């Protein structure tokens, strides 16, 4: 029988360090989350390095790793030891010239429950991801694990209702959003409140529209590794929301933290029974959603 209740966690960290140190740090924090009862644990986007997409520099491709190498070996052993599911977002080298922004979903026995490759790739000032990442080709997927059915999307994916919907329609109970998002320091005073508010609002909307739990894991800290630039001030504020968009746990803007909340499948079903959005979808009228524009 599936678990009716289980605990999920997102870990918010400063990851502005070298890969070896970030790996050790994340292993320690996952252990802490498991010791507090977390059963499904997510790290932030691109956990193993600073956010290198602030520039277009071929030297940064050296940060990528092949499938089933360093990150998978370490977190597979940890998941098996602790009996937890771990979501591990990493920079994947698929082959020469093809790289992805990816995430392992590692099950409680250390096996790969699933792999997700980020589908939506941004290209904004100091978020030059199109230079590095090939768009994902595995689609939107719900991954069954021994703890529950989870969907993993990554950062820029969080702005797209279609991604949340297609994942939820496959049975996801939780949508995890490993993230690396922050302010341009020179814009924070003018735009910061609205930018952060929009980020939270859109994901809470996904929770409501799909009757799912949503868990966003962001990083913190000023990452200013390029000379003569202001860098990016990652805004933290990781959170977990319930199926009515209610905030179950929220982190600060500037502290390393673990957030834990309980997934209650009976509650989820009750919400969907009372707000039957899936029942009332007019799928016969949605054909044009696959067009770039309706003109």
UniProtKB/TrEMBL annotation:
Ranges of residues in domain CN hydrolase: 6-265
Keywords: Hydrolase
Pfam family, one: CN_hydrolase
Stored InterPro entries: Aliph_Amidase/BUP (IPR050345), C-N_Hydrolase (IPR003010), C-N_Hydrolase_sf (IPR036526)
GO molecular function per UniProt: N-carbamoylputrescine amidase activity
A single BP term in Gene Ontology: putrescine biosynthetic process from arginine
Protein name per its UniProtKB record: N-carbamoylputrescine amidase
Native source species: Flavobacterium omnivorum
């Amino acid at each position: 029988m599936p678990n009716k209740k289980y605990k999920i966690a997102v870990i918010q960290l400063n990851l502005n360090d070298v890969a070896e140190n970030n790996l050790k740090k994340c292993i320690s924090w996952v252990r802490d989350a498991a010791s507090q009862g977390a059963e499904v644990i997510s790290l932030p986007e691109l956990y193993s390095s600073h956010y290198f997409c602030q520039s277009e520099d071929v030297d940064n491709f050296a940060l990528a790793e092949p499938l089933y190498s360093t990150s998978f070996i370490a977190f597979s052993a940890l998941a098996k030891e602790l009996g937890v599911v771990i979501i591990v977002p990493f920079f994947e080298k698929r082959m020469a010239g093809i790289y992805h922004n990816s995430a392992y979903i590692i099950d409680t026995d250390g096996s790969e429950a699933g792999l997700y490759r980020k589908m939506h790739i941004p290209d904004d000032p100091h978020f030059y991801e199109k230079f590095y990442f090939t768009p994902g080709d595995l689609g939107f997927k719900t991954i069954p694990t021994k703890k529950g059915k989870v969907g993993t999307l990554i950062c820029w994916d969080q702005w797209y209702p279609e991604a949340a919907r297609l994942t939820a329609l496959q049975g996801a109970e939780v949508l995890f959003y490993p993230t690396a998002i922050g302010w341009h320091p020179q814009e924070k005073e003018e735009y910061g409140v609205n930018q952060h508010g929009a980020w939270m609002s859109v994901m809470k909307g996904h929770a409501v529209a799909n009757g799912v739990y949503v868990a966003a894991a962001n990083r913190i800290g000023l990452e200013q590794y390029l000379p003569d630039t202001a860098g990016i001030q990652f805004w933290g504020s990781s959170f977990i929301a319930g199926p009515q968009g209610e905030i179950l746990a929220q982190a600060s803007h500037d502290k390393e933290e673990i957030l834990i909340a309980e997934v209650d499948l009976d509650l989820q079903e009750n919400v969907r029974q009372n707000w039957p959005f899936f029942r009332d979808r007019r799928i016969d009228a949605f054909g044009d959603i696959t067009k770039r524009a309706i003109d």
